[in-house]
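W.,

You were right to be curious about this one. When I first looked at the sequence I had no strong expectations either way, so I just let the prediction run and decided to look at it fresh. Below is the sequence, 281 residues in total, followed by the output.
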Amino acid sequence: MKKVLSFLILFLFAFCTKAEKVNGIVYDKQGNKPIGFVSIGIVNSPFGTYSNEKGQFELKLEQFNVNDTLRFSCIGFNTISYIVSEFFETFANGDTVFLSEKITQLNEIVVLGNRIKTKTLGNINASRQVLIGFLGDKESGIIVENRENILLREVAFKLAMTEFDQPDSAVFRFNIYSLKDGLPDRNLLKRPIYFRIYNGQFDEYVSFNIRAENIKLEESFAATFELVKQYGGKRIYFAGKFHGSKGIIRWGPQGEWTEQKADGGPLKLHQSLEIEVIEIE
């Protein structure tokens, strides 16, 4: 009987720990400077946060398994992971988390020929009658079917908010992933891509040129947005569709990917996201 009780106590301790909070800062180990907008969270769970522009973060976990993995990741840096219980023990009084920079080279891609052939992929002509709410610690996007050699040129999307709800500004991070079992797998970018949107742009069609990033793809991929920082205002909405490229979503900076559906139902949603590409022969 005592052995059974001991087992139950250990089992409950492993899965029902008290809430923990820690403040810290993330630094570039080589450059000795803070890293902004680092994704910090428990792997495959909705719990986590982002560092701010100065690399500072406050991580609060209400409930967790002591053996869960806590991951720090940012494009251009090597990912670092901790066992949750060990992290809170080591960083109980706040400390610096160091990430090592990845050594990568951005090769310029030159498109030859007098006529450049372009096309647009993704969810075109999204409607403001279909609204997809965007909150912090959420990443969503679409699966783009592709079987050709392409170079990404421009990304565009349609937002939908009332004039009085708009934030002063918001920072989105744009990501491109390879696919595994029809869902995002590995981030293919060599450096992060951020879009900052300002008051007055949150109820219109917005586009950004990404040609200089030299993103060349030959297979289907996932394109997503993360809302890493919002300054004031209410919830940001993307326009959407009921049919189109498959929508995907994950809650938390290190959460598990699923197909995007309307709250509490089987209805599938397809977020506004268009990508103009150059076809490479």
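Here's what jumped out at me. The chain has a mean pLDDT of 86. And, maybe more interesting for your project: The domain at 2-99 is CATH 2.60.40.1120 (Immunoglobulin-like).

Coffee later to discuss?

I.
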